[in-house]
Amino acid sequence: MRMSDKKISVIPASFLLSFIMVTFLFSLWGFANDITNPMVAAFKNILLISNYESAKIQAAFYGGYCLMAFPAALFIKRYTYKKGILLGLTLYALGCLMFVPSGKMMSFNAFLLSYLVMTCGLSFLETSANPYILSMGDNETSTRRLNFAQSFNPIGSLMGMLTAKNLILSRLDPATEEARQVLQFSDSQAFAAMQQHDLNVIIGPYVALGIVVLAALIIFTVVRLPKTKGEDHNELDVKGTLKRLFTNAKYIEGVVAQAFYVGAQIMCWTFIIQYAGNELGMNKADAQGYNMVAMIIFVSSRFVCTFLLRFFSPGGLLGSLAVAGGTLVLGSMTINGMPGLYCLVGVSACMSLMFPTIYGIALEGLGDDAKLGAAGLIMAIGGGSVMPPLQGMIMDGTGFFGLSATRISFILPLICFMVIALYGWRTHNIHHAGCRRQEPAII
After folding, report:
1. How many domains does the chain have?
2. Which domain holds residue 411?
3. Whether this model's pTM surpasses 0.85
4. Do residues 111 and 148 touch, judged by C-beta distance below 8 A?
5. In a domain, 440, yes or no
6. In this structure, is residue 7 part of a structural domain?
7. Is residue 125 in a domain?
8. Which of 254, 98, 87, 284 is nearest to 173 (CA)?
C-alpha cells in the first residue's frame, strides 16, 4: 500500500477543543485507577482480610467495565458520544459519593458496590472517548492520535498515586496487621474506632474526586462537541455488526490480547506493594513510592513509544515490548533483593504502548462497527477483575522451587505477556503493509 505524500494532521483544527476536553477524561479515569490499586493493601490491613478477599476490590472495579461496556456501546450507537460521556460522568460521580454511606456502615460489600457503580461510569467514558478520539481525523493517523491522547492517562494515574501515598497511606494508623488482630480481641471498641478512622481517611479523597467529576459533567453539558463522520447513523444492526466482528480474526485476537494486557498491568501495579513488603520488609507508603516511579517510567515511555511508531509497525513494536516485559517479570520472580523490585518497576516501560496500540489495531478499518467493537475491547478490561484475585489466591498459599508465594504469583503476568507477544507478532506478520509512514503533523 502506498501512502499519500500529503502531510496529514493527526488532530484537525476543527476538533482541537474537543480533543483537549476528551483527553482530560483519560487523565480523570487514570486517577481513579491508580488511587484504587493501593487500596487493595489498605483494606486488607484495615479489615483484616486475605489477599484474595482484598483483591475483590479489583474484581468490582474492573467488573464494572465488563458489565456496562456493551450497554454503553448500544447507548452510544443509538445516541451520541457526548451523551455517553455525560452518563459516564454521572455514574462516576455517584460512585465516588457512595463512599460516604459505605464508610458509615463500615461495610466492605458497600465499598465494592461503590467501586462497581464508579466503573460502570468509567465504562461509558472509555467506550465513548476511545472511538471518538479515533474518529477525530484521518484513519491513517488514528492509532497515533489515540496513543497521544492515552499519553495523558498516566498523568492522571500519577496524581492518583500521589494522592494515595500522601493523603491516604501515610495517614492510616501505623499499627501492623498483627497488632490489629491482638486489639480486635483485647479491646473491640478501640479496634472499631481505629477502623473508622482509617476508613474516613480513605473516604475523603474519593469525595473530593466526585466533586471534580461533577464539575467536569457541568462543563461537558454546556460545551458543544462536534459530531464525527457516521455519528448520525444511529440505526442498530446488532446482529449484523456482531456477525462481522466475530468473523474478524484480528479483532477477536485483539480482545483476547487486551484482556491479558489489562490483567498484567493491574497485577504488576496492585501487588508491587505486597512484593516490596513481603520480600523486602518495606512499609506501604514507601512501597507506593516505587509504584510512583513505575508510573513516571510509564508516562515517559508512552511518549517515546508514540515517537517510535513513526519507524516501526504497531504489531512489531507491541510484540517486542511484550517479550521485554515478560523477561523483566521473570527477573522479579528469580532475582533476590532490590534488583528484583527494580525489574518489577521496569515492566512499566514495556506496558506503556500496549493498551492504545492493541485498541487501535483491533478497531482499524471497522468503520461504524467500531462503536460496538469498542465495547468488546472495554469488556476486555474485565481481565483486571479476574486475574488479581487469582494472583492473591496464589500469594495466600505457599511457595515452592525455592521461591516465595509472592514471587510465584507473578507467573500470571508472565503468561499474559506471552499472549500479548503472540498477538503483536501475528499482527506484524499478517497485517504489516511493509511501508514506512511519513510523519504527520500534530495539528
Report:
1. 1
2. 13-224+238-431
3. no
4. no
5. no
6. no
7. yes
8. 284
